[in-house]
Every structure is written in structure tokens, then in C-alpha cells.
Amino acid sequence: MKRSLLAVLIGSLPLGVSAQSTLLPNIVVLGQEENEPNTREVAPLEQPGVAVDGGEILRDAPGVDAGRMGGHGLEPVIRGQGQNRINVLVDGAYLFGGCPNRMDPPTAYANTLLYDRVRILKGVQTLLWGSGGSGGTVLFEHETRVPDKGWGLRYSLATASNDLNHETGVDAVLGGDRAWLRLFGSDAAAGNYRDGDGNEIRSAWKDRKGAASAGLAMGEDTRVEFGIDYDQTRDMLFAGAGMDSPEATARTGRLKFEHDFNGTHLQGIRFEGARSTVDHLMDNYSLRTNTMMWARAPSDSDTDTARLLADLDLGAWEMTLGLDWLANRRDARRYTGMAGMEPTTLNSVLWPDVHISQLGLVLEGARPLEAGAELTAGVRYDRVSHEARKASLDPAGMPLSPNQLYTTYYGTTASPGTEHNIGFLLRYQRPLKEGLHLFTGLSRTMRTADATERYMAANGMTPDARWVGNPNLDPEAHHQLDAGLAWEGRQTRAGLVVYIDQVQDYILRDRAHGQDGILQTDNATIYRNVSARLIGTELTASRRLGKHILASGDLSWVRSENLDDHRPIAQTPPLQGTLRLDRTQGALAVGARVRWAARQNRVEDDPTVDSGVDPRQTPGWAVLDLHGRYRFGSHATLSAGIDNVFDRTYANHLNRANADPFNPQAIQVNEPGMSLWMRLHGKF
Question: Hey, which bits of 434-491 come out as E strands?
């Protein structure tokens, strides 16, 4: 199948809208078959449940997990890799959270009502979405349809008994073939949920979102789009953190342009530019009772991105030549003071005005081979620069400046640095016989240290409470190989993928135990480079049992190891999966789902000898969910269900250690107990 790489990449541009048009067709990345296990597409409103957090909606995909420390801001992990090892783009824009403790990963700002689909690319499927992405890429995308009548309206109302007070959203579009305007707004609030034992978990939050976009088609070949998003989350409680977040605000502006040349070799050009700003505040007193020392930590994160792409037809090869730029600035302080008084004493320069910029050049293309096979090849170069402009800022009294902390643990200070990173991709696929499809890929990707890993500078009351980034870190080099089979018969579909990722200079979050390059043995949180290996497998299968019933299931497993120290790597999901049985007949659909995970005993839970990042060896668990749906034509669909039917008490292995002063017995932040939910949505 010969498909333009650029068309795939820019599929999210809702430009040149025509009546009843679908701007984001059901495309498959780089020409792969839809049933390849490396890719998954999720339609948020079609999923059972009322997940309103972008991280939570991803949990349903095999090989994808998420950890929580409250009710909002779940941290996704793909194939054992999370945080900046996953590229997350929200309508084509990068957005980096403003909290040094990751209360707000990028997915926290991706409203599930606004985006029609979420594409999950597991592993390295393309180099076009930026550097890194060794774990995968997540694309939140939306469509814009303008009906013949010139306007359209979508709505959604949802509630749940144990974690969601309400969620309402309205999405309106007005226009025609040549121009359109789209407006979106939502409001949601959640209270503290209870686990299966009836314990109240600090997890409440409030959120309001708004978005507006407009597009114009200037002739048949030129289109332009403008868009802005606004997201304000308030009063977020976190059982898995020593602080809560009174407020976090994100603003994003976008500009997109495309022009089709329809020439012999140059087919078209595309440009995307975006600016995202995040202002975040956390403290330990405004949303919880605290008679001890008060602390607050204001922070901000600003991200600018631009991408220029040219679509080339070079005979047998369809190529994309791209130039992209990303610049992120982060600044965070922590202030302390006596209880009852607004904290004004500077305690730590957490992010000392960190600037990281990346300029990338990429060339990627695909060509058909004999017997229906296809080869994809790409190469990428990135120039990365980084600096901490306020690393010498010294808090008064005993606390240390960032440079003093770096010197204490690594014998160095922050200085501007530059990296030259080169990656490549080779993918091959072919049909073996009717219904059976083979695919394999080999890649090298590079990931630079983020602002926290390189420049975090948190003082503590004792040395083991310090958290110190490492300015000497080298970039990670991931060398991945994956291979698999996908089979589709009349009644049965199945997919199997196995993968290995050999990592040079893996950036490990660890404790100071006098390791090579670490000057202290005081259990402070530090970062260092190690060699690592991740291996894993995923299996999916489904079979139709008659005309209306579908049985399906999946399982995933990954093993991560620190090869230098012969230790597991913390925050690796255990063997886990789902079993489903769904019946659909006409407007009515009902189903049952069992979610399960085995015990995870390969952990790092002792900070005196290892990283201590894992709370414990997490017991295995299994829960049953029931759901149903009825469609009242196109104007309304009513969905309802029960999650965790038997009210089991359990925790996902990736969940944070409990830091809730009102529930100190809990070892991890537990998942919600039984919850009844309902959603009504439709369109006009």
C-alpha cells in the first residue's frame, strides 16, 4: 500500500472543510495494516466509562498503563517507558507540564470530549513527530465536520457515583466549504473517591476548558487554520504527594498552513507552529490541614514549537523532508514559612530558569516492494542545547543553591551544553498468505535529559530529602528491534509482537550510594547514566461468536533491567491484560470486561540500597466491569455501567506511594472501589 507519509503526519489538520467531510480519515501510520499490534486508535466517547483524564483513557490499550497519585493527572507508560520517553502531541502541539513532581503530565490537559480520536503508536513507528519517543507517541486529534445545513452541535453529560460529580461539554461548528469556526467548552468536577475498603482517597479536582479554532480555504490548494485552547484546573488533591495544587492553567495557540503544488516531485508543504504556556502552583496548606512548616511552589513551563514539511514524490519512494524546532523554558521555586503565614522564604530553586531547545532535520520515506511488501526508512538529526540561567541563585541561610547541590553530588556546576544526536528507522512489512501479515522494525532514537533530570535542585530538611539533577548526563541512545504477526480471518483476528530495547546511557532516577560519579552516600535522590535493557511482548485476539457477540482479550508483559547494577528498573508494569465479551444488536450494546494484573515482585522499594521509587511489591488483582449503551438515533446515546462490580481494593503497580496524612495506613494510592457511571452524548 503506497501512502504519503506527509498525509499521515498532517492528518490532524482540519482544513478545507466540505459538507459532511471527515477530515481525519481512519488512516494507519506508515501504511501498516489496521490490526498491527504496534498501533491502536481510541475514540474517547465510545469507550466504556467516564474517563476525563487523557492518561486514564490510554489505559485501555494493550502495552499501555498509567500511574496515579490522585484523581487527575494520571501518568501514562507505554511498554515500560514513561514521562519524556513518550512524545505527546495535543492537536499537533507539544505541551510540557508545569509541576516538577508531575502532577500535570501533558495528557492532563487533553480533554477527552474535545478530541475525536487518540492514536497510540507503540515503540518507534516514525521519526517525524520529533526526537525521542522511544516508548511511543500519543496523538490527540479532532475532526471538524460542517453539515450541509451549515452548522453542527455535539454535547456530552456524564456523572459517576464514586469519582465524578459532573462533566458537561458542548462542541459547536459553523461554516461551509471555504471557511468555518469551531467553539468548545466544558466544565467538570470530582470529589474524593473511596477505595474498596471504604477509605476516602484525596483525589478531588475541578476543571474548565475552552477552545476556539477557525479555518479558511484560499482556493483549492491553500488552507490556513488558527486555534487557541484554555484549560484551568483548580483545587486538585493528591493522596500520593506532600502537596496539593490549588491551580494550574494552560494556554495554547496554534497556526497551521498547507499548500498543495501537485507538481512532478514536490507535492505540497505543511507548516505547524504553536506556543503553550503552563502556570502551576502547589502548596501544603491551602487545601489540607497543616500545623507544621508551610511551603508553596509556583512554577511555569513555556513551550514553542514549529514544524515545516515537504511532501516529495521521487518515483518509487514517497518521501517527507522535515525541519522542526522545539524550545522549552521551565522555572520553579519553593518558598517556606511558619504555619499560618504565607511562605516567603526562598528554600529551593527547583528549576533554575532551565532552557532546552532542539532543532531537528528528518528525512523519511516508504516504497513498495515485490509481493505486496513495503519498506520504510528514515534518518533524523537533532541539535540540542541546554542551560540553567539561575543555577547560582543562593537561598538565604542553610539551603544550597543549585550549583552548590550539583557540586556536592557530582563535583560540577551547571554550564551550557550542546548535543548532536542521530537516529534512524527501518521498517519492513509483507503479507505471508491470505490474512497473515509480517512486520518488523529496527531503530535508533536519542533522548536528551529533561529539565528535572538535568537541573532539579530541591533542598531538604535532611540529606535523604534532597532531589538533585545531574548536569553531566549524556543523552539516552535506544536501539530497538520489534517483530510480529497479525492475522485476520472471517471470524477471528489476532496479533503478536515481541520487542527488545537496548539502551546506552539510560537516565536512571536513583539514590546516592556512592556509585561511580556520585560523591555522596546520604540517600539523596540523584540521576545517573546506566546501561539498560527492556524486553517485552503483547498479544491481542478477538473472535466473533455468532452475528452479534464478540469475545476479545489481550495481555502485555515487559521486563526492564539496569545492566550495570543487575537491578530491575522501577515503575515497570507487571504481566497484565483484559478479557471482554460484548454483544451488539441494533441500537443496543452490552458488555463485560475483566481487568487483571499479576503480582509485581521485581521492584526497587528500599531507598537505602536502591532507588526506592516503587512503594512495594504490588499484589496481583482482577476486577469486573459491566457496561451498556443505547443509541436514540444520531441525536443521543445513553451509556451506563458499573466499574469494579465487586468493590475490590487494589492498587495499580505504577501508583505513587501514599502521602495522605489522613490515611497513613495505605501503602499505595488505591484505585477507586465500585462506581456507577452514566453518560449522555449526541449531535445535531
Answer: 436-447, 457-458, 467-468, 476-488
Residue 575 near residue 557 (C-beta atoms within 8 A): yes
Mean pLDDT, rounded, of the chain: 91
Measured CA angle at 100 (ends 99, 102), to 5 deg: 65
Eight-class DSSP state of 128: T
Rg (CA), the chain: 25
DSSP state of 454: H
- Rounded CA separation 222/270 (Å): 10
pLDDT for the residue numbered 662? 67
Which residue type, as a one-letter code, is found at position 210?
G
The pTM of this model reads 0.92
Cell triple for residue 389? 540561567
Q: Where are the domains of the chain?
A: 5-683
Helices (H), 392-491: 402-410, 451-455
Alpha carbons 405 and 460: distance in angstroms, whole number: 11
In what order do the strands lie in the sheet containing 39-42?
A: 39-42, 117-122, 136-141, 86-90, 93-94
Q: Running DSSP on this structure, what letter comes out for residue 192?
A: -
- Residue 9, phi-psi category: left (phi > 0), alpha (psi -120 to 50), beta (remainder): alpha
* Spatial distance between the Cα atoms of 668 and 618, rounded to a whole number of angstroms: 9
Name the helix (H) or strand (E) containing 120: strand 117-122
Task: Count CB neighbours of 531 within 10 A.
Answer: 15
Range 5-683 classified under CATH 3.40.50.150:
no
pLDDT at 3 > cutoff 80: no
User: Kindly report the CA angle at 356 between 322 and 321, in degrees rounded to 5?
Assistant: 5
pLDDT of residue 502 exceeding 50: yes
Nearest to 94 by CA among 102, 86, 311: 86
